[in-house]
Amino acid sequence: MCSSDLLASEAPALIASAVDSAGEQLRQRIASVIAAALADFLAQRGQLSLPLAVPEECSLPRREASPEPEPEPIHDPV
User: Fold this and answer.
1) What is the mean pLDDT of the chain?
2) Across the chain, which distance is largest between two alpha carbons, in Å?
3) 18 pLDDT more than 70
4) Alpha carbon 55 to chain centroid, angstroms
5) What is the rounded end-to-end Cα distance, in angstroms, of the chain?
6) What DSSP line would sit under 39-69, residue for residue?
7) DSSP annotation of 15
8) What is the spatial distance between Cα 18 and Cα 22, in angstroms, rounded to a whole number?
9) Other beta carbons within 10 Å of 55
10) What is the pLDDT of residues 26-49, one digit of tens each?
11) Does the pLDDT at position 8 exceed 60?
12) CA 30 distance to own-chain centroid
């Protein structure tokens, strides 16, 4: 068996291994970037307690729905 035949027969396994390795490295990097971004956010803003309560003095008064005015007819001089 010549070296090109050996390489051709091993290429799919080598490619699959490289793709698997690259995928795992990418997943790890994405997870670390998300963790760092979350840590930065929490350091700047602090963790918010959910659900957020709305104090009564901050609530907006309710408005009654008013009917929409009738549109004026379009007068075309032509």
Assistant:
1) 80
2) 90
3) yes
4) 31
5) 89
6) HHHHHHH-PPPSSPP--GGGSPPP-PPPPPP
7) H
8) 6
9) 6
10) 999 999 999 999 988 888 887 666
11) yes
12) 13
Angle at CA 11, nearest 5°, toward 8 and 16?
A: 160
Count Cβ neighbours within 10 Å for each residue of 4-26 and write b for 16 or more, e otherwise: eeeeeeeeeeeeeeeeeeeeeee
Structure tokens at 23: 């995928």
Alpha carbons within 13 A on the beta-carbon side of 71: 3
Break the chain into its structural domains and give their ranges.
3-43
Length, in residues, of the chain: 78
The single-letter code of the amino acid at 47 is Q
